[in-house]
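Notes from the 1:1 (GR / supervisor)

We went over the backlog. Supervisor wanted to see one worked example end to end before approving the batch request, so GR pasted a single chain during the call. The sequence is below; no edits were made to it. Supervisor asked that the structure be written out right there so they could see what the output format looks like.
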Amino acid sequence: MGLLSIVCPNCRSRLSINDAPGIQDKMLTCPTCKFKAKVGVFQMGQAGKGGQGASDEATRLPGSFLQQAKFDIGQMRVVQTGQICELRMGTQVLGRLATSGTADMQIGNDHYKDEYMSRRHVQIDVVKTAYGVEHHLVEIGSKNIIKLNGKDILRGDQIILKYGDKLTLGKTDLILEETNDEATRII
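Structure output shown during the call:
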C-alpha cells in the first residue's frame, strides 16, 4: 500500500491519502474547500488532471513537449491557509472563493475569506518556452490591490514570475513554488 495522489475537483487542491482496498468508495472531505465526495470522484476524469475543466497540452497532445520534458509547472501556496493551487499549462484566473465566483482557482475556505480579494483578481499564464516554463502575471483590471514582493502592480502590467515570488491579492499572500508532494499530504 502506498500513497494515492488525488486532486479536489472543486478547488484543485492536491491531496495525498493512504491507498487501501475499496478506497474509491470511501467518503473524503477536501480540507481546503470542504467539498465532499467519494475518493473515486476525486480520481475521475479531469479531477486527476488538475480539477474541473483542466486542459493542459499533455492531456491533449500525445508525445507533446510536456510529456517528453521532465520539468515542474509549479503551484501557488496560500500563506494564511496552506491551500495549494496546482498550476497547469495555459491561462488561469485566481480569485476569492465565492458561490458566484468564476475564477479557475478560488482561494479561501469556510474559515478564511479575504473581502479585499476580488472574485477574479489576477491571471497567471503558464507558457512553454525553449528553456522550460514561464509564469506570466497579467493584471486584469481588479479593483483590489495586487502586490508582487511588496511592490504594487500597475494596471495592464505583465510580469514574468520566478519561483519564490510572493503575490499579495487583497490581504492574502501566495507564494509561487515548485511542486512539493509532501506539502499537501493528508493521511
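Supervisor's comment: The CA atoms of residues 94 and 145 lie 13 Å apart.
Batch request approved.
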